[in-house]
Amino acid sequence: MSALLEVDNLQISARNDDDELTPIVKGVSFNVQPGEVVALIGESGSGKTTIALSSLGYTKPGLEFVGGEVRLHGEDVISMQNDRLRGLRGQRVAYLAQSAAATFNPALTIGEQVTESTVLHGLMSQEEANRRAEDLYRALELPDPDRLGKRYPHQVSGGQLQRLMAATALCGKPDLLVLDEPTTALDVTTQIEVLKSFKSVITQEGASAIYVTHDLSVVAQIADHIVVLYAGEIQEYGTADQVVTQPSHEYTRRLMYAVRPPPAAGQGEETSDEHQRKAPALEVKNLLAGYGRTQNGAPEITVLRDVNVAIERGHSVGVIGESGCGKSTLARVMAGLLPAAQGEVLLDGAALQPALQQRSRNELQKIQFVFQMADTALNPRQRIDKILGRPVEFYHGLKGEEKRRRVGELLQMVELPQEFAGRYPEELSGGQKQRINLARALAASPEVLLCDEVISALDSIVGANVIELLKRLRKQTGVSFVFISHDLSTVASFADQIVVLYAGRVVEQGPTNAVLSPPYHPYTRLLISSVPELRVGWLEETMETQEAQAGIDRVVTLTDKGCPFFDRCPRAVKGTCDEETPPVRKVTGSHSIECHLSEAEFAQ
Amino acid sequence: MSEQTNNTDQSFSFDELPDAPPKRKIKLSWPGKIGIAIVLFWSVIVVIGPTIAPYHEADILDEDLFIVPGSDEMYPDTEFQPPSKIVYLGSDYIGRDLLSRILYGARTTIGISVLATLLAYLIGVTAGIAASVGSRYLDMGLSRVNDALLSIPSIMFALVLIAALNSPGIFWLILITGFIYAASVFRIARSLGQEVMVSDFVEAAKVRGEGLWWIITREILPNIAMPLATDFGLRFVWVILFISSLSFLGLGVQPPMSDWGSMVKENLPGLVLGSYAPLMPAFAIASLTISVNMIVDDLSAATGGKLAKRMIS
Amino acid sequence: MIWRALLARLGISLVTLWVVSVLIFIGTNLLPGDVAQIILGQMATPENTAVLREKLGLDKHPVEQYLVWLSNVMMGDLGISKAGLGAGLGTPIVEMLGPRIDNTAMLTVLVGAIAIPISVALGLLAAMHPGTRLDRTITFSTLNIISIPDFLIATILVLVFAVSLGWLPSIVYLRGDESGWVLMKTIAMPLMTLVILSSSQIIRMTRATVLNVMSSPYVEMAILKGVPRRRIILRHALFNAIGPIVNVIALNLAWLVGGVVVVEQIFSYPGLAKLMIEAVQMRDMPLVQACAMIFCAVYVVLIFIADMATILSNPRLRHPK
Hints:
The complex is a heterotrimer.
Chain A: E1 5-15, E2 21-32, E3 37-41, H1 48-54, E4 63-72, E5 75-76, H2 82-88, E6 93-96, H3 100-103, H4 110-120, H5 126-139, H6 145-148, H7 158-171, E7 176-180, H8 188-205, E8 208-213, H9 216-222, E9 225-230, E10 233-239, H10 240-245, H11 250-258, E11 282-295, E12 298-311, E13 316-320, H12 327-335, E14 342-347, E15 350-351, H13 361-366, E16 367-370, H14 374-377, H15 384-396, H16 400-413, H17 430-442, E17 448-452, H18 460-477, E18 480-485, H19 488-494, E19 497-502, E20 505-511, H20 512-515, H21 522-530, H22 538-544, H23 546-550, E21 584-588, E22 591-594, H24 599-603
Parallel strand pairs in A: 3-8, 3-9, 6-7, 7-8, 13-18, 13-19, 16-17, 17-18
Antiparallel strand pairs in A: 1-2, 1-4, 4-5, 9-10, 11-12, 11-14, 14-15, 19-20, 20-22, 21-22
Chain B: H1 30-52, H2 98-133, H3 136-150, H4 154-165, H5 170-197, H6 200-208, H7 212-248, H8 260-267, H9 279-302, H10 306-312
Chain C: H1 2-29, H2 35-40, H3 46-56, H4 62-74, H5 93-128, H6 133-147, H7 150-164, H8 180-214, H9 217-224, H10 229-266, H11 272-282, H12 285-312, H13 315-318
């Protein structure tokens, strides 16, 4: 059987302003057999998207084909003329982009965009295409399939748009689908559902696919073959099973190592109590916070409600939840960036002023904030020595030689060479910038470090290294950490306490081991079951569970009364859960769950 | 970036791939290079113009100068004379040397425009930064006033004020122009300032407990200096054109001072007599404004055309 | 939702117009000295100055003066021009304005009718072939045109068409009964100047707007769906760019005000702007006020249209959830 797509010694280069060529893809070859899904996996800069796009005979502006062939049914697409390429694109090869929100034209209806390519290519009449689109909406489990086509992109949710992209691609029954990180921008709970509908539709339609991603555990669910890429070259190429279970190449093993094991009890770091004092390092009590004008102690939009969290000295508390749950808001309230409307923030048992302008320099020094995006958190016009030197001078009054020595120490602490002191942030890579970002917070010698999604923008290997660094720093310095992340595996591997936030409420909190083992809050259970496992077949098993159903394309809604998780909860009791604020149940020690279910019911 | 040694992760053979594109250098195109030369040329003229001018700007040339040796014409015309060895660019409508007046006029036109643009920047940037770092009410107040000012066409504004002040002098001309253009500078400085103000690194400075002065001088200003400098060029061009238009309408610089805009106006009747006198000062203005725009074009290409986008919205 | 946005914008426009009227009133009354005395000039005696002051309402409080002026303006009474005042009878400004407004309106409407289609087409053309010689020629020449003074364009046109070729008159002499070919020939020069001036801006901005849309992910997606280039530009790009383009056109017509002032002066075109320049030179303040109010009102209306285009072209507002 001949291959559907043959990529043969493909070479692509970038042309810069001075007309010099820099190779981006350096002689890549692989095949896609009919009915097969081939995954291209690699980190940013590996050339995976560039390679995938070449199967449509397309390069991003500034890139150009230098050599090799990409043959579809034995015919080279790179050398095709424009009008033939047009016949190829959308008809025989279809593309699914990473961000559906940006790739849908805001001014045209969904239906027109889904059917456009098919109708233009003369494959179907408009009516036939509309019927086909409706069938696909049903197959992809999209709501209200009859009227969906008449709506506009901004009227549906992100997860739905992502599946509508799939409908667009599949509408013309292409031979080959190119999926470019189609689930990366989604929350974990939405991700599995989108993954599942992709997989079942691909199977139903008998299509072949190229699946581009950086996430090995996602790949394991969907691919038949895996191509591991680094810097435009293939490192390893084999069946999914072989690559996942017996990686032969060093780079693949590193990727595997960077994938943290699924969250389970027993992962959290054990913390000695040597730094313990009476009061917790940082504590928030009965917090109510939000945005907009505050009237009678209630903000226009309430984001956090009844939040009680204590960070013991030397401990690390992981805060977890989907986007929109109020994780970052909590950190901003602690830092004083967003004054709370009600409740208090205590440092060492003493109440802090809500707004940072009223806090003393000494108090500010003890709580340091590490921002999510190192790119934007470092002033591009300041050199590293100035970025790190300022807090040293500001809080500790060090000057001249002393200051320089301290900056050197800090660089050493975050494992960066001394000569980085003279560089500007833009001369550093993403991981290095994040280390500087950390070092700046450490420069204050704080007691509590607030880390807001510090590794979510980093590639997996780089992120794993930063986590290792954080673990080491915690042991060395005894600093308490508040570690905010949407990724439960990351939190589980780093924190000794976990706080689960949903729609601005703490639904469960306690020691990592307790939170990750039964009894669970239904939402914690959903989160745990949504984290993809690095093994083939996990997706199918998970989708059977009732928890997974709760993840289906719901948005987090803030409610004034009752339990906010009510409309997603598989065990919700109408009349109780949607009306009454759930009680906080103490399970054991400091482990508590906010739910109407009784302990006996949890046990079921 | 390629020479960067990445020894962050010991024993790590697969370096993290650099994610930042190499720093873009400002590359000057040919029009840009010529532009710089012309701007430099006029800058020199501003300084030494009156020194090297063959005559004084107000000198009405003597008839004797124009007597052609051997000719019996004892009373030749001195007005609208074509270029010759006596008057290199010809003479104007009352017989003054055009070249000398252009050389003197450079100082007036460019000087007034630079001062007016600087004034506009002083007012606009100060207010713009104040609006972007200040309270919501300060921002709202300043922005509303600014919106109202911007909804009067600048030339109307100037005409009303000039009428009210009864043909004011150069001092008022600079003041009026600076004030009018401050409105648009305010808008751009405010939006640039706001953009930096909400960035994480300013937030980081706030969390550190830095004062407002530090945030303005160390965090905001260095980051908006480059786009503002580019904008200064554009604004300067508009101010030159604006002041020249006013002078052309007879409401700007008043005689006997020479200024390029009014020179075009006073010599306009010469056009039908076949004299190029009105074109010379007009070309002088055009050479300067086109040059500045060419340089700005290159600069904004280097900053990714960000400014160009801002100018549209 | 969309009505609320439009109403809000209308409200802002009305407030702006009011603020503008205050600013103009302050501006024209800013001057030190006695208006009545300035108007009468050498004929001023204490008696007739007092009479005129009372007649002009200058003995009242400034706020009262403003309110009287504003209510008069709203009722269509723009006051009395200085022209003829010395002799005891002034010309009502409304009478003076009529034919001038007609002339200026005719000129600008014609400019719009010619410049808008040409420049949108050229802007699109440049945006469809970015980086080509055609595009570079268009961008380079439009950049040059917006950089040079408006009177230079007018001067060159006079030199070419009036002096060298002798085809067209260098001064507009409108009797008011011209029509067709004669009229076109009479106003050809100011028309051409203004068309060149305004189209350069519109071309540049149309090009930039369309290019901006063309670099958006959804246009790349359309390419990858195999959508033909023509359809990408006409359906995907233009559909999203139409709001910004209308915005640009409205703003440019507003900017034309400045060009109109210079052009009417240079060609002695008997329009509103020339009347205003004359008023400024004569210090005929009521007339200056009236002309400025009219220009500012048109400007505010055009900006309102520009903003409306933006609001109306926003699919989020047109099709709320």
